[in-house]
Input
Amino acid sequence: MPPPILTESIKKTPLSEAFSAFLIEKEFQNLHEVVILGVSRLQNMPGFTVHFMEELLNILDEHQCLHLLIED
Output
């Protein structure tokens, strides 16, 4: 079972307004969907920035689930 931070709605997750808006626009429901997509696919998404990646890495690290991010 994924950690609670991963299954929380994007709207309730403590993310910047810009990153949250990006994820909602791309129709992600939660961070679990983001981490299983994988690093390469995220980086290739139009509009995904280095700042978004840093924010994602930070929140995953804060919640001890950085290891769940799929590196493909």
Q: What stands out?
A: Residues 50-62 form the longest helix (13 residues). The helical segments are 4-7, 17-25, 31-37, 39-43, 50-62. The two ends are 22 Å apart (CA to CA).
